[in-house]
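Quick question, first post here. What does this chain look like in 3D?
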Amino acid sequence: MPEAPPPRIQEWTIGRLLAWTRGFFDSHGVDDARLSAEILLAHALGCPRIQLYARFEEVPPEDKRAVFRELVRAAGDHKPIAYLVGHKEFYSLDFLVTPDVLIPRPETELLVERTIDACRATDSDRHDILDVGAGSGCIAIAVARRVKSAHVVACDLSDAALAVAQKNVDKHGVADRVRLVHADLLDLPAGAAPDSGFDIVVSNPPYVAEADRESLPENVRKHEPAVALFAGQDGLSMYRRIARDVRARLKPGGILLLEVGQNQADAVTTLFETDAGLSLRGRYKDLAGIDRALELTLPA
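> Answer (accepted):
Ran it through. Tokens below.
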């Protein structure tokens, strides 16, 4: 009687790697387990994510699997996926990110959309825009890429963040219309602001209350820059500072666009109406139905 063949060793194909990693991420509370697994494996293999679907039966070489294992381990410890691969898509553009900048989020695309709409609502051949707290530069760059009349001053207090933003400005070819400056909110250096003021001021400032620190997901709380997240005990300290100075930066009739946290829209609206004398033009919900962006104007 012939001997039975030895059992076949199951190989680590791309399909099997993805299936195992998805289960591992699910058990460790990693957001978007399937997508995260695909992003990390595509990064380790140096290929577009879409190619993975046509290569499910391929067995990656051991050196690539070793890189992938280390990425999976780090993600299981709640290090953000975007920091592991060094980039993040925002408004259909790819941005370099490091732990020195907040990771761009889909809800912030509302600010880009409203800024673009505000520019296109006028027939001016130039729109002067101030992006306060630029971080990676994603808002300023996305607007400049979509609106050729946009000239953006993007400011941040962090030199490390500005270095990341400069790489993104150069990557996306908008250095002629996006100027990066070191500044603490609206306290701009001499010559940074147009004499007549900005047509639009846009900001996604820190707005998480210190009291809510421990409620944040671990990958945010432990890894993203605290200076870009937290804003005093009630989360409104940066809005108060912007409200104090924004009139001096806006043209009459100019627009202020702000991202706000959950349940902050009413308080922030009242703050800017009372302290800055602005008028509310609109409030906009994100995909979760949360009031996420406010549009206010300085009366002409």
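Strands lie at 87-90, 93-96, 127-132, 150-156, 178-182, 198-203, 250-259, 279-285, 291-297.
Residues 14-77 form one domain.
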